[in-house]
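Now for one protein, fold included:
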Amino acid sequence: MPTKLKLLDHLMSFISEERKKRFSDIIQYRTRHICVVLEDIYQSHNASAVLRSCDLTGVQDIHIIENRNEYDVNPEVALGSSKWLNLIKYNNNDNNTIEAFAKLRTEGYKIVATTPHKNSMNLDSLPLDDKVAVVFGTELTGLSDLAIDSADEYLSIPMYGFTESYNISVSAALTLYTLTQRLRKSEINWKLNDNELTDILLDWARNSISKHEVVEKHFLNNGN
């Protein structure tokens, strides 16, 4: 058995049967066919609410672009959701949007900007045959011009009231719920592959064990 799988089995031996069952029940609904990209989100309440929506809809990866604002998670709102998700940050350049989009495209994603646009699609018509990275912008001004100009597709949520726009956390929740429901009812292969399953379960196990580094080091030092 490869070392990674042996390590997973070893770490799982420190976890209760109830939690292992919970892992097994939840991971079958996790997907990387849809991911979320957040550009310069600065209100911790909204940032954390988006994480909860990702967790509850089964979206595993959140790509965080920090150009002007540092992404801050409010633990009271996130309710621990961040430790079950993969957060990938882009903050090494003056403008990290292009770097994030380029990386996502190498992974097979189409970039979908959430913004009113003459070519905008709605939640029911956005194609899901290819992997999609749904990009949300700042609470006040939305996505940057660069993000909009660099996107492959555009997505908008219909509004019928006087208010100008949805709050970003509400927008993300509506978008992710609708798209993941459509995905699961389709014939698209949206599930994680075996390697992704193992990697995510390893992360979940590590996050469930106190001083997991010591347990893991001892296991590996014994020639496993």
